[in-house]
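quick one before i forget lol
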Amino acid sequence: MPSIPLPGFQPPESIQEVFLNPGGFHFGTTDTRIVTLLGSCVSITLWHPRLRVGGMCHFMLPSRGVIPEGAGYDGRYGDEAMKLFLGHIMRIGAEPEAFQAKLFGGANMFADMAQRCEINVGERNIEMGLLQLERYGIPLVAKHLGGESHRKLMFDVWSGDVWLKSEQGRKPR
């Protein structure tokens, strides 16, 4: 997926590519590309256009409820992945509202099971992602959500661009 260079957003000479597995989280600078594959999981990308820093999370479930005493935040859960973002945002002295968010994923990968159990994990993950962005006042500038197929994402932190490859299936929202 080649990118078209824009003035001021040229790819760096060397790129650090980070692959996120489910539950993964990474926050990087202008030499970083973050890649992941999604099904019912959701990824949020946050990017600061002036500072040109940002990150991506890949959460599997909306929340685990109560965090066990002494445990740190776990990127497998949407509410805790946002807390990981907030920690990085505070460390660089920025405000959450200065970032741009993009939200991806939440496919109904197990449509037959979801109908029988009335549980759609993808839909619940989407709801949590949207709730977290609203809670912290982070503007959502792009989204590709729902559907019934997986997605591959590639986030270029130097430009804020997110490249998406998705299989055909029920149209996402």
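fyi The CA atoms of residues 148 and 158 lie 31 Å apart.
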